[in-house]
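Record 1 of the preview.
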Amino acid sequence: MNRIGIIGAMQIEIDLLLEKLAIQEEQTIAGMPFYVGEYMGTEVIVTKCGVGKVNAAACTQTLIHKFHVDAIINTGVAGGLHRDVKVGDIVISTNVTHHDVSKTQMKNLFPFQEEFVASKELVELARTACNSSDLHMEVHVGRIVSGECFVEDSKLKAKLIDEYAPLCTEMEGAAIGHVAHINDIPFLVIRCISDSADDEAQISYDDFAKTAANYCSEIIVEMLKNISSNTYSSKGENDMLQALMFDMDGTLFQTDKILELSLDDTFDHLRSLQLWDTVTPIDKYREIMGVPLPKVWEALLPDHSLEIREQTDAYFLERLIENIKSGKGALYPNVKEIFTYIKENNCSIYIASNGLTEYLRAIVSYYGLDQWVTETFSIEQINSLNKSDLVKSILNKYDIKEAAVVGDRLSDINAAKDNGLIAIGCNFDFAQEDELAQADIVIDDLLELKGMLSAVQR
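->
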């Protein structure tokens, strides 16, 4: 059975729902009432969170952790912003955002989202419910903005329209979407317009708020009739990818911290053997970072014999491993946190790297990554030195159908594309803009994967 959480800020926004549902239990948590009931085979928890985003966020987290809801719907009234949105109209959210938090802050701080996208399934259910209801209201689908104020000022209204192009404004939806997003719970905000969010807003609100709230409740009741028993599954069952395959250098491991040191040591060694007489080609190495080491030495030592290249490769590997074991390297921020999250959500983790087996083993061992990683694959394990073939070998060995490849260079992106997988580009140290442009998704922090695991489903 589905378990749906429904949040209203005020009593008038849930009164009609309480009348329609068969209420079986009432609990009070943190001063908020939670009514547990059932409607046509769907378990429903209706709650009144109180006005404002902090209350709404606390209430949403309680629904998720205490009541284990499969989806959340926010109902209530709102102030119309778009010129076509009139009092009495219904607005269904495609996305929600905070209008009193800077876009830069939202993008650059966890959870790194400028907006929170509503469930497409719930949007369609709401559309269908509106079309089948007897209310015959105008329905609009688009952005809803939220802030810690009742908008009743024409100048503020104009500013919100200019900056966000929203349909309406209220005081809870973005917080609900925010918390739902970081918990991977589908959500929807549906509002009926009670006022025009201008200098006359308070007068209109007082006259129409109760009626508007009831209109929204009628739509939600209609939605509950159409939610099938398998519309949603518990978190981590059907909404997650089977596997994530990570590149190592420049994606999980900050190779830059030991690269120049190890390369200098290697070319000092070549100088001591009278095999090199100029500066260490660190810039050239950075350009080709991500390709297999045999190709690296072809590029860096084009005039040297294969034997010298192989000897240089072996010496370079020794220096890399020594620097890893002496703690001079580092993982990128949040590697262990995101690995823990991925495993908790029943998604397997693999490492697919152009690095050599011994080198990869040193990193995995030193940082204890094997507690999360199912298996680490090196380019040494295949004959072609092509990362696409390496990824294909993982898919075949573990019978993986749905996966994504996470990496910083074109070889990672191509490995995903060539195997029909999702390509997630990491905008880290060695990344190049023209290469990242070919990825399906680009991230600036590994924690962004936390909110994407469901969204990247193909």
